[in-house]
Specification:
Order of helices and strands: EHEHHEHEHEHHHHHHHHHHHHHHHHH
Radius of gyration: 23 Å
Number of domains: 3
Structural class: mainly alpha
Organism: Roseivivax marinus
Strand content: 5-15%
Bound molecules: flavin-adenine dinucleotide
CATH superfamily of the largest domain: DNA Cyclobutane Dipyrimidine Photolyase, subunit A, domain 3
GO biological process, one term: response to light stimulus
GO molecular function: deoxyribodipyrimidine photo-lyase activity; DNA binding; FAD binding
Helix content: 40-55%
Oligomer: single chain
CATH architecture of the largest domain: Orthogonal Bundle
Protein name: Deoxyribodipyrimidine photo-lyase
Family: Belongs to the DNA photolyase family.
CATH class of the largest domain: Mainly Alpha
Strand order of the largest sheet: 3-2-1-4-5
Number of helices: 22
Length: about 475
């Protein structure tokens, strides 16, 4: 008797290669029906991540169609949509790749229980991470709160070899109905920004593999220093693709290990950076409050400004603080959908320390604007910067956005690339910012560049006083 179909439920794993759920579905036998849901998780996404997801899903649908398969789209709460599809297709199994954030975990647990109750096989697979959060623990059986011991605990582990791309996708003879992706309008909120950011997007697993290849052949050697210079394209840029599972961390890891064996400087550091991502997930899974509350709970008593309407918050969001490094980085984000890691650290430190604003304001703004938005890395990065996270930067480390310029943008190549005001012939990238931002901001390249809203020295003094006088 032929096997019943398997529903292959796609989420943040938009690829065919190194996809354990696909392999399991094909091994089970019977046809495979790939599905993507506009469910509670998708509805929660903010502007740029939702837009980028829409592009990724569209690209995946095309790839599947080229291979004789199809991506079935359905909207609604996951439990209901999956159960409806099981009903319509007679599927005997539903397979998916695991997610680790609390909303997904709750959703998946409910879906699994409902499927099992009606006698449908439900199985999830690992792949978004190399080291599942519960598999790494200290000698005392606890989770790690500091990166370096976490790194030591995992660095010599065997990371499974990536799986190949399946060639026959076992399509069914009859397909269920599908929504139209265009009708979902996942990118609606992007408005004018979509056209500006689109050329910077590298979509799909083919592009991700090319990025990885290019990084390993020409950039990894110089990564140790290059990764700190925001005017250079010295990093892999893979966060965009890792975020949606267009490439897997183990594919990156194995490429890094090969580069290290070939004696390429920088490969070891790249592997350590990949493990920062794992560490972020480890923390999020063990302490989900990382996403929405001070990881160190005593920081609730810190006198953060939480009012987003204040003029300094508006200036920060618009890249008009008068601090060139901060403003350049914010504008890079509006134009490219991404921001260099040094920029992220500087704008976060500036918002939380110089401007004394709550890290949640910045975290949520990034969540609105980043196409590589990742719940775990974003919240860990913000809490690290603010001082409220585990393994956070010490309170007295206040990035000085002016001296940082002298260290990391000596020739001002980065700020000139992104800030048009004051330049006779600004480059296209700097001008693109004015096309990306809402018209209501009413900013023009002919405006004068603002004076600092807070002087670097004054802001630092104020921040240190508040941090030193806290009574916890
Ligand atoms: C305030 C703040 C917010 C951040 N928000 C995000 C976010 O939403 N999404 C995101 O992917 N990263 C975030 N990061 C981490 C880091 O800035 C980016 O991962 C990195 O800039 C991506 O560029 P890349 O792919 O070229 O990195 P590479 O330098 O090439 O590194 C390779 C990969 O390692 C991982 N990685 C590198 N640095 C870190 C780090 N500090 N933390 C976690 N993983 C890391 C990423 O997956 C990255 O793609 C944030 C950092 C800070 C300080």
């Amino acid at each position: 008797m032929p096997e019943t179909p398997t529903l292959l439920w796609y989420r943040r794993d938009l690829r065919l290669s190194d996809h354990p759920a696909w392999h399991a579905a094909l091994e089970r036998g019977g046809p495979v029906i790939p599905v993507f849901l506009k469910d509670e998780g998708v509805r929660m996404l903010r502007t740029a991540p939702a837009w980028r997801l829409g592009l990724g899903v569209g690209h995946l649908a095309e790839t599947l169609a080229e291979k004789g398969s199809r991506l079935i789209l359905r909207a609604g709460p996951a439990e209901h949509a999956i159960s409806q599809l099981v009903e319509e297709t007679g599927a005997g199994a539903v397979y998916w790749m695991r997610a680790y954030d609390p909303v997904s975990v709750e959703r998946d647990t409910a879906v699994k229980a409902a499927l099992k109750e009606r006698g449908v096989e439900a199985e999830s697979f690992a792949g978004h991470l190399m080291f599942e959060p519960w598999t790494v623990e200290t000698k005392q059986g606890e989770f790690y709160k500091v990166y370096t011991p976490f790194w030591r605990a995992v660095k010599d582990r065997d990371v499974e070899t990536p799986l190949s791309t399946p060639s026959d996708l076992a399509p069914p003879s009859e397909w269920p109905e599908s929504d139209s992706l265009a009708d979902w309008a996942l990118g609606a909120g992007m408005d004018r920004g979509a056209e500006v950011v689109r050329p910077w997007v590298q979509l799909g697993e083919g592009a991700a593999q090319s990025r990885l290849g290019a990084f390993m052949s020409s950039k990894v050697e110089g990564y140790d220093d290059g990764r700190d210079i925001p005017s250079q394209d010295g990093t892999s840029n893979l966060s965009e693709n890792l975020s949606l599972g267009e490439i897997t961390p183990r594919q990156c890891w194995h490429a890094g290990v090969r580069a290290e064996e070939e004696g390429k400087a920088g490969a070891g550091t790249f592997l350590q950076e990949l493990v920062w991502r794992e560490f972020a997930y480890h923390l999020m899974w063990h302490t989900p409050r990382l996403l929405y509350d001070n990881w160190r709970e005593e920081w609730a008593a810190f006198p953060w400004n939480e009012d987003e309407r204040r003029s300094e918050v508006i200036a920060w969001k618009r890249g008009r603080t008068g601090m060139a490094f901060v403003d350049a980085a914010m504008r890079e984000m509006y134009v490219t959908g991404r921001m260099h890691n040094r920029g992220r650290m500087i704008v976060a430190s500036y918002l939380c320390k110089h401007l004394m604003c709550h890290w949640k304001i910045g975290m949520e703004w990034f969540e609105d604007c980043l196409i590589d938005w990742d719940p775990a890395s974003n919240s860990m990065g913000w809490q690290w910067s603010a001082g409220s996270g585990p393994d956070a930067t010490p309170y007295f480390r206040v990035f000085n956005p002016e001296t940082q310029l002298d260290r990391f943008d000596k020739k001002r190549a980065y700020v000139n690339r992104w800030i048009a005001e004051g330049q006779k012939s600004p480059p296209d990238e700097a001008l693109a910012y004015f096309d990306a931002i809402p018209r209501s901001w009413a900013i023009s390249p002919d405006d004068a560049y603002p004076d600092p809203i807070v002087e670097a020295g004054e802001g630092r003094k104020r921040a240190l006083a508040a941090y030193e006088n806290r009574d916890f």
